[in-house]
Structures are given as C-alpha cells and as structure tokens.
Amino acid sequence: MPASNAYLTPAEAARRLGASAKALRLYERRGLIAPLRTAAGWRAYGPEAMARAAEIVALRALGLSLAAVSRVLDGDPGDLDGALAAQQSSHEARIRQLAETVANIRLARAGLADGQPPTPAVLAALAAPDGRPAIAIAFDLPWPWGGERFETPALPPLSYVTGPLGSGKTRFARSLAEALPGGVFLGPDRTLAAARTLLDADSALAARVEKALAWLAEDGAVRSDALLALLAHTEADTADALVVDIVEQGLDEAAQAALAAYLRRRGPGARPLVLLTRSNVVLDLAAARPDEAILYCPANHSPPMRVAPQPGAPGYEAVATCLASPEVRARTAGLTPVIPA
Hints:
The protein is of the alpha/beta class. The chain is built from 13 helices and ten strands.
C-alpha cells in the first residue's frame, strides 16, 4: 500500500469519526468494515473504509444494533423506519419541552413587568437544558468521608460512579440514590427470582425486556440470568431515578459492550440512570459523550468529584486508572477491601 495522507491510523480514524478505536475493531470483527493492512500488519483506513465507517457511526447514532446496521448496509432499509420514528418522537418531545419553556419565560417576563419577579426555583427551571427541570443534588457524605457536603448539578440520563477499591464508592452510590428525587439503589444481589416476580406482574414490562434482549442479542450479547435480572429492573417504571451497583456483574465482555450501546440509545428525557462500574467496556472513555456525567471517588477519600469525559479534564486520568477490562476485573470479583478503623 503506498504511503498517503489519505490513509489513517485507527486512532486518527476514530478521532475523525467521533468514535473509539475499540468500536472500529468491533465493527471489523462483525465484518462491517475491512481496513487495509500495511506491510507490517498495521490497520490503515483509506477513503472507502472511512466512508463505510461514517455510515456505520451514523446508523449506530440512530440506535440500530450491529445486525440491523449490517442489513441496512446490505440494501435492506427495513430497520430504518423504526429508528427514524424513534428519533422523530424524541425531537418532537424536545420541541414540546422547549415550547413549554418559551411559554413559561413569557409568563415570567409578564410577571416581572407587573413587579412580580420570578422565584429562584422558577429561574433554575427555565435555565435547565432542553427545558427539563433541574435536579439539584446535595447531601452530607457518609463514612469514610468526614461528613463533607457533596453538591452537583442535575444528572443527565446516563451517569457513572467509579473509583479504586476501598474508595467508598458503594456508600457514595447509596447516598446518591437516597438524595435523588424518587431514587432507588439496585444492589449486586439481583436474582432471577426477583426479576421473574416483576415480569410476571407486568406484561408491558415483560414486553419491553424481551424487546431489549432482542436488540442486545443482535449486538452480540448472549441471553443470561444476570442480563435478564438487570433489564427487569432497569426497564421497570418503579423509580424516578436508578443507581445500579456493579452493573457489569455476571456479564461477559460482549454483553457489557452491547448493554453500554443500548443504554446510550435512551433519549434526553429519560430518567437518570447511574451505573457504578470499574469496567472499561461499560465506561469506555473514548466513547463517552459530553452529555454523560462521571462521578469519581478518589482513593484518598477526598470528596467525590464530577469529571468531564474529555482527555485533559481534571480527574480524567485518575478515572482511566480505575477502569479495567472484564478479564482483569474478574481477578478481583467478590473482593472487599478491609480499611483499618
């Protein structure tokens, strides 16, 4: 292959596409793209591979599974209608939210003209992104902290909690669930029996879970008790916000990757979902979006901090050192550090 600026390394290609190199390798394993190889065996993405990859990234952004992406690229547009309908519904909901916000701003201005300034709560709601009410979160930190006050702005639909072993992240996650309006903490003791009870009592929930399982299967996940138990709770309407402890528990790498992609499909109006994780598949920093939040618990028990998912952001490198592959995570599965009193 002749040397040319038209050929990009995986890192360059990922940066230009707004994807991750890990995602590009996944697309290659699934036969969706075929980058060239140099004489030394390195991948090289030329114009044709980049155009193909850009199509895949766009279709994934619409919420299509990898199997559905393959069908569309092969000339079968059948899966596109449902994806476009979901996008249309999401955008229409945002339009309604913004229209309501504009109407409320008009009312606030009219009140101001009459000598009645809007309250701080009204101003905070009007300033919230997409017109969504702000959820201000504040609580006193539990042990092993010294009772410091933790405060953070509204959480987006998808957030993460992470930190090294012994950092107190589970206690922090429990307190976060208590502080979130309508929040529920889902521990690692998720059983199939409990999931079956939920599914048997709610046929609509059962249908949503089966639909989710079908999508995940097309993305490479294998149905398992752990995955079914997790979905039964994450798809249920029993909480206004959900904090999930060790979300990767019982899931292999393919299931974790499929789950991460599935959860990113949720629209901007979805309820807050917070995932406690130390898996670099669940929290792939290269794939994390600006509208996602990372809450990091330092090893020295300094107060948890909100970390922007961008290289160079304060705390970004520390977060990266906490995450590991499923193979490495398996070595410490079930271990609980003992902290001297």
